[in-house]
Design a protein that fits this description.
alpha+beta; 3 helices
Length: about 100
């Protein structure tokens, strides 16, 4: 994660730069992912040691999955956009671009 240095009113602050793959997702989806993260964080504080251990394990796994999935979706969207700008059509079946 990159750290961005900002200066406001003469005060220098280091703030983490928000990744583009996170900044571009819809607010509703962000709210859902934040709620899942809060649920897992609270489960990590469970008095039942087995629940706390499982929550810690799943927090890491789900966090990694979400990050990879969002990055992959962004890349797929960029590829679709690039292909549509070039007039690309899939082979076989489908409509063909007229020349």
């Amino acid at each position: 994660m990159r750290i961005q240095i900002r200066e406001e009113a003469g005060i220098r602050r280091a703030t983490p730069e928000i990744p583009e793959w996170w900044a571009t997702i819809p607010e509703g989806e962000k709210m859902l992912l934040h709620a899942i993260a809060r649920l897992l964080r609270s489960a990590k504080r469970s008095q039942l040691q087995e629940v706390a251990r499982a929550a810690a394990k799943w927090e890491r796994g789900i966090g990694c999955f979400v990050k990879v999935r969002l990055m992959w979706e962004k890349r797929k969207a960029e590829n679709r956009k690039q292909k549509s700008e070039l007039g690309w059509q899939p082979m076989g079946g489908g409509c063909r671009r007229e020349t």
